[in-house]
Write a structure and sequence with these properties.
Blueprint: E1 5-9, H1 13-26, E2 31-35, H2 38-47, E3 53-56, H3 67-75, E4 81-85, H4 90-98, E5 103-106, H5 111-122, H6 137-146, H7 151-161, H8 166-173, H9 177-190, H10 196-204
Parallel strand pairs: 1-2, 1-3, 3-4, 4-5
Helix pairs in contact: 1-5, 3-7, 7-9, 7-10, 8-9
Organism: Stenotrophomonas panacihumi
Keywords: DNA-binding, Phosphoprotein
Pfam family, one: Response_reg
Length: about 210
């Protein structure tokens, strides 16, 4: 029986290599995939639908806070995500959990913590450090609102947050400008926003240190 397929998404090559080394020691039969940005993460997942687990750094190029986590959970809900981050504030850990992560590993954790967390999640469990932070109803509400968006609408929303015009969004995503207009209208309706600016504020709330 083949081993699990694990995707390590982090923009630092040395850290990716270190994580992969740890995982190979613990799971020698596993197949390893790599991604260095939010866009390559999407490409690799699109090419490897059999991915069993994603180890995700929050601070990758192209990601806005928890946006990459929400995008993966929305487009590949069957693939568990373990966040691995240098920002291990209890509030950040709790938000990762509420936005759909199956686990959280601090980059300062010992190597065996990575292997232990991955093993727990692959077995269908979760792996979070002890937390003293209360669940945030605002985060739960934000996650529920964003979950209404299709993957393409979520991409358009991130472009809106960057201040791009419809024409620029169309060029960046390879869409017709009229299609972008349709998506923007749907996004504002689903998120109960009256303007593009208000929708962009919601994306700002995805930053790890922000509270919606």
């Amino acid at each position: 029986m083949p081993g699990p397929t694990l995707l390590v998404a982090d923009d630092h090559p040395l850290f990716r290599a270190a994580v992969i080394h740890v995982l190979r020691e613990a799971l020698p039969e596993a197949r390893m995939l790599e991604a260095s940005s939010a866009s390559t993460l999407g490409q690799v997942l699109g090419q490897h639908a059999d991915t069993d687990l994603v180890l995700l750094d929050l601070a990758m190029p192209g990601a806005r806070g928890f946006s990459a986590l929400l995008h993966v959970r929305g487009e590949y809900p069957e693939v568990p995500v373990v966040v691995i981050s240098s920002n291990d504030h209890p509030r950040v850990i709790r938000r990762a959990q509420q936005f759909g992560a199956a686990g959280f590993i601090s980059k300062s954790a010992p190597p065996d913590a990575i292997a232990t967390a991955v093993a727990a999640v692959l077995e269908g469990g979760s792996a979070f450090p002890p937390m003293q932070v209360e669940r945030s109803e605002a985060d739960a509400h934000l996650a529920a609102r964003l979950a209404q968006l299709t993957p393409q609408q979520f991409r358009v929303l991130l472009c809106l947050a960057d201040g791009l015009l419809n024409k620029q969004i169309a060029h960046q995503l390879g869409l017709a400008e009229n299609t972008v207009k349709v998506h923007v209208t749907a996004i504002l309706k689903k998120l109960d926003c009256y303007s593009r600016t208000q929708a962009a504020v919601l994306v700002k709330a995805l930053e790890p240190e922000s509270a919606p």
